[in-house]
């Protein structure tokens, strides 16, 4: 048990005793007032009080006296700072700087509340001999803005500020600079990825904020896994800032915000600042409420679906542990004992048998999936193997479904839909229409038009099939990688684009189509007609924002039908047509360069993110057990 935690325990108990008996250590008889109102501690009275409280609480008299003296000095300092603030406007701010060694550096600073957060950073940087630009300040669960005044951010006299810095060794100071830079680079990289993948402005500001929050949260979890709590807390608070730009209805569809609040409070505890940041209690309330909404009270809904040993109960263990710790620091010792007993029982139920784990890993399964499976199956190895294979199959099915959905959306131009409220296509309805003999792309497009009304989609397919075909030609977005592969076979860029549009990005069909309709470098009449129509469509869309007349629709459909049947003609243009200008080639190369840059950025950005859906359920629970034992000793539960 750390001496810091033991000292905190004494402070909590003695402060409660003083409040209970309404004893004010800054008044007579515990203070003596001499001439000019000079005050000093009354040693005899303080010793008598230390002996009395020490006997009642089981604390050595010497330790009790030291703690009471510290409380008395702290009370006097608060009175003086309050008086100074009222007279001069100069606020006293307590700064806590967590270090990598697990301790905290604490000191006070004087500052005007009309000064900015950046100026406070400068003062703290001078005190810690660090570059102020490399310090991030947190107060009441929010990152202090460097431009706004402290008063605007409700940082006033007596506030406690956490300064996220490393220990002052050269190596650790360098690491802190890296942490600061990494957090800002992560946000800018995320913004670039989100904006570049939203070329049609499909996402609303609110959904962009949600996506940014989810992205930063994933990076924060990766930092937690790497045991970098300072960087993790910064990223989690940045994510929290973005989540707060979303309305409650949007947040209610995901449980990530509950998990975010849980992880923020966990970082507070790891950085030994749980009792200093009052929003910890509020965050745990938010977390508990959302867990009940998602999983049912006491995980009843999850237990009914997935069994009593569902891995989601791990989340409940951490929530209950943090609640118990918070009760302890609020001196609600009976509540803390009750909750710690609950945590102990839950941990025993979730304990993984080491022999079972070894046997399962000998079968070739990974540590993470073994832990999850054994917890889900109460350490039954055979059942755990079945569980692992069932989970893998479920993931494969979901991945295939997601890939099919993405491909279908690209084919029918769903990314370019107007507005953010376009309904998601129901693949089961697409399958029903395919069973009736309709092509997948046309079925999806009809459902898109009818807002997932299958009867309306049937009506579209029967009455407006030709218009649907024309719309499909307009909306298919050409896959640039497939285009490059066709060009590598010797086909021109424009011809490759037309073939991929006509064949909905099906590479094999597009290749066969071109082999049939291009001979000796010349296009068939039907293919040439499709090229001409699509060229007119392109010039029309540039002047009329993508609108195409009914006549053009019919021409497109007719060109598509003709292209399917026509044999090549020697009277038409070659594939190396003059439309493949150097300007078009330059644009294509620029798109290729930009895509390569974004691919590299995404690879770098996502390399440390856990992508599996159940990654947050894979906790070894060693830290939870260690904390439980520490607090049980403090509460005399052994």
TrEMBL record:
Protein name (record): UBA domain-containing protein
Domain of life where this protein originates: Eukaryota
All residue ranges annotated as the UBA domain in the record: 351-391, 424-464, 477-517
GO terms, biological process: regulation of ubiquitin-dependent protein catabolic process
SMART domains: UBA
Database matches in InterPro entries: NUB1, NUB1_ubiquitin-like_dom, UBA, UBA-like_sf, Ubiquitin-like_dom, Ubiquitin-like_domsf
Sequence ranges assigned to domain Ubiquitin-like in this UniProt record: 91-165
Pfam families: UBA (PF00627), UBA_7 (PF22562), Ubiquitin_5 (PF18037)
Biased composition (Low complexity): 538-581
Keywords: Coiled coil
Residues in coiled coil: 444-471
Membrane-traversing stretches: none
CDD domains: UBA (cd14270), UBA1_NUB1_like (cd14291), Ubl_NUB1 (cd17062)
Location of region: Disordered: 535-592
